[in-house]
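Category: protein sequence paired with discrete backbone structure
Discipline: computational structural biology
Format: plain text, a pair of labelled lines
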Amino acid sequence: MGYTASDILGVSAGFLLYALFAFAPGYTFGWLTNVFEFRRRRLATRIAAAIPVSIGLTPITAYFLWRCWLPLVWIVFGASAVVCAILLARDARANKLHLSRAGWGVLAIAVAWLVVGTFSLVDLQIGDRLYYPVSAYDHSTRAAFTAAIARDGIPPHNPYFFAGQPAPLRYHYFWLIPSALVNLLGGPLVSARLSLIAGALWCGLGLFGVIALYLRFFQGKGGDRIERRTLIAVSLLMVTGLDIVPVLFEDLVVRAILFEMDLWNEQISSWVAVLLWIPHILASLIAGLTGFLLIWTAAGQQQRRQKIIGVVGGGLAFATCVGASIYVGITIATACALWLSIALLKRWWRYASLLSWAGVLATVLLLPFLWQVTHGVASTQPSEHYVPISLTVRRFNIPDILVDPTHQGKMLALNAALLPLNYFLEFGLYFVVGCLGVRRIRRNGLRNQAEWAAVALGTASLLLCTFTKSSVIAANDIGWRSPLVVQFILLLWAAEIWDEGVLGFGPSRTRKSDKPLRAVPWLVTTTIVLGVMGSCYELCLQRTYPIFSDLYGFRKPDWLSSDQQLGRRTFELRRAYEEIQRILPPNAVVQSAPAAVGGNLQAALYSGRQMVADVEDCGTVFGGSKQFCDDVILPHLKLLFDDRQPVTPELVSNTCHEFSITVLLFKDTDPVWKNKSSWIWTAKPLLSNDFVRVIECPNAGAQLNASTDR
């Protein structure tokens, strides 16, 4: 079977298995606790609510159950699935899925997402060439972590560092826990990577669900025209900013083709990019928003039981939010702190008290996880990295051309002055929507708690993405992830004012006092058209960039092949790694040459095995000692792969024994490969082809048996 077909089959199986964790828990929890008055709602509302509630509750629950004993996970979630099946069958008989035309439109978009998302994320095989999508660059890391969780349990080990003994993983991995469980259930059919893709599909459905919940239970219109408003909001996910304008300028004029559209500037990701590239970040956002909404609706209830359920559900979801993404968690926590301050000043005691108790519960639940991810950081990271976030002004690319980068004061001042232009290009239609929202607030004031809460959420998000940056790694994760909350609020506003006719489409439904706020139709149309073009361009890049890099050999990032053999090399590497998976046990250590930049992408995607070192720093940002990496691991490994001096059988044996390596994998791009008189050509290979040569370490069987005994 071709790899594309087998990937689609594996993703389909993984998607069905994922329902145990991404649907059944939320439906069961909703029915038993009656959150959102679940039992009174239509079947469509119950289904829409089940997915985001599951995303909020499942990871933190599975985390504690797995820490205790893995069979507890199967018992609890298996029972949840049985109860869900009984309740869903009963509800389907009593409440038919009655949908309006708009409701069927939302369902059609959901199905389209499953098809497009699957095709965009699996490998594409063309003859004897195999091409992963560009988002595999991000997915490869999460695939390796997912395999590590499935292999090691909770807490997991860093798959990129192994000094003879594993190092604890320092990463926000909560969303990867259900993916690892699906990987365990699916066996060889559903690899770690395919389970991640299945999880990404569920995250897309979860985003649709949380949009519908906020339009129904948070926005002032409630259930009025809810299916039409949901259809508008879900459709607007295809509208991004005006990124297509500078990107096409770079493509056509500068002749620098970017592999991801948002790279032209400090990122504010399109919703399409969020869905395809960073589903774990999206899961964190969904969990945080669901937790906030559970508390919000509970504050409007009179029964004490419902308030307690809201606090417990909200606390669990907040804990999942932080455990799935520290940076989204910081944003949600900052927004909640701002909303709490407003609620206290306004004497809205129920909102303040329930939010406070949920925050306390989330903090208590997160203590073991936070201790794990921070343990030993001071001993392995440079002192200047102790503070993870620093203050700045959001960077804009134009000042980089106009001002000497060494003049920090001038750069910050110019970045601040150009913020409106920066955000107009990044937000596009939503910049217009934000301006309309601000004008409406200035005219009418904030009229209820929901409007105050929306402003608090959006303001905290905007302040963080404008004036903070990450200082732990080169990527500005806090600046890239914190905008998601304000993007979500602007999406809700856009759907509402579109429904009101304020954007110039259809008759106006606003009050007379709001009619002057009607937007300029040509501006709205232009931003929508350019925004849709940007999302379509993003989808095209996803599949075609690796193929065109092979065909035309243009300048490409370091993690793609420098030659025009990416497709053939990937095909042979995947075959080799799958054969290694078949013949070697899960505890085998498979080592290839540590890459200078970007890591061994195919190893992370297809291996599912522990590595001693994947990149030049051995991935120690995720756990382990960088000093040990530099002083011990890399000098030993480079001798085997660099061909700078003769390698003896004793050296190979000693290196393999010291780091418990089972097999060594050599690629045609390794320096030692080019020397046909080198030791890898005299050693008998376990596997061999034109691009890959796998050599078993001496006494590998004894090492595996000893590892199994431990």
Notes: Residues 377-385, 706-710 have pLDDT under 50 and may be disordered.
